[in-house]
């Protein structure tokens, strides 16, 4: 790696850099055939500020440059209350959800860095992605998440939902 990578809480002063990373991520989505995710100005600065206010907005830095953004938020996630065509691995324990992962196309291994960080904070994590986001589906499964079913966002848009629970002492 050789790079000095660190994850820290995002602050409003990071906004311009975060928005650049998000625009780059949208470019990757479009070029890989994912045309319908992150449209109409989403995620907006208001959404990101809301993450930060909840203490759940994070940036990944390499050598002091912001190369990725993600939200890591405590349950409950309202859109996860009902899941279709499947079920959560566990629907009793509290969990964290990871949303809005965006990274610079030149930064590699970001998903693993983010997940290693998140699983150091909580052993039970849920995530969802768009049916057309094949890149994200691949890294989610590669990291050991289990496909659980379909959830619907407040907007009515469908998402594929996943969960991973790491048992104490060994990874499941």
Structural overview:
The protein has 172 residues and is an alpha+beta fold. It has helices spanning 15-31, 45-53, 110-119, 134-142; strands at residues 5-9, 57-62, 65-74, 96-103, 124-129, 146-152, 158-165. The chain has a seven-stranded mixed β-sheet. Strand 4, helix 3 and strand 5 (124-129) form a beta-alpha-beta unit. The model has no long low-confidence stretch (mean pLDDT 94).
Any descriptors?
7 strands, 26% helix, 172 residues, globular, alpha+beta, single chain
Draw up the topology in text.
Blueprint: E1 5-9, H1 15-31, H2 45-53, E2 57-62, E3 65-74, E4 96-103, H3 110-119, E5 124-129, H4 134-142, E6 146-152, E7 158-165
Parallel strand pairs: 4-5
Antiparallel strand pairs: 1-2, 2-3, 3-4, 5-7, 6-7
Concise account of the structure shown:
The protein has 172 residues and is α+β, with helices and mostly antiparallel strands. The protein has helices spanning 15-31, 45-53, 110-119, 134-142, and strands at residues 5-9, 57-62, 65-74, 96-103, 124-129, 146-152, 158-165. Strand 2 (57-62) and strand 3 form a beta hairpin.
Structural class: alpha+beta
Query: Over the alpha carbons, how many angstroms does the gyration radius reach?
Result: 15 Å
Q: Can you tell me the overall shape? A: globular
Uncertain runs are: none
Approximately how much helix is present in the residues?
25-40%
User: Largest sheet, if any?
Assistant: 7 strands, mixed
Mean pLDDT over the residues? 94
Q: Helical element count? A: 4
Strand order of the biggest β-sheet: 1-2-3-4-5-7-6
Strand content: 25-35%
H and E order: EHHEEEHEHEE
Number of strands: 7
CA(first)-CA(last) distance: 26 Å
